Amino acid sequence: MSASPADAPSLWATARADAGAPPVWSARTAPVERPRGPRSGTLILGLVLAVCGAAAVVVALGYRIDLQLTLIGLLLLAAVTLLLTPLLRRGRERAPGSRT
Predict the structure, then answer these.
(1) How far, in Å, CA of 54 to CA of 70, rounded?
(2) Where are the transmembrane segments (predicted)?
(3) Which of 29, 58, 85, 90 allows an S-S link to 40, with CB 3.0 to 4.6 Å?
(4) Could you list the residue range(s) of the whole structural domain that residue 87 is in?
(5) What pLDDT score was predicted for residue 56?
(6) What pLDDT does residue 60 have?
(7) pTM for this one?
(8) Does a structural domain hold residue 68?
(9) Is residue 3, in this structure, part of any structural domain at all?
């Protein structure tokens, strides 16, 4: 026994929206994402590069710097920045008058 062509599912049938298909967004209905600030990794990398550049300029001017002490200070500064970045963002999100 074979099924009649009328009983077979149509190849051109569209999927129902509630059948697990992901929603389709248009320019008018797309959700607006809140702008984010710089990521903490980007902030740390920029900070490390700025300190290395400043150290290169200082050495080029003829000054001597202690490499070990400078590296310890750089790592300490990066660690403090990594710790403070999420705390500052959380405080900014909870600021009064901000829309949530």
Answers:
(1) 11
(2) 43-63, 69-88
(3) 85
(4) 64-92
(5) 94
(6) 96
(7) 0.52
(8) yes
(9) no
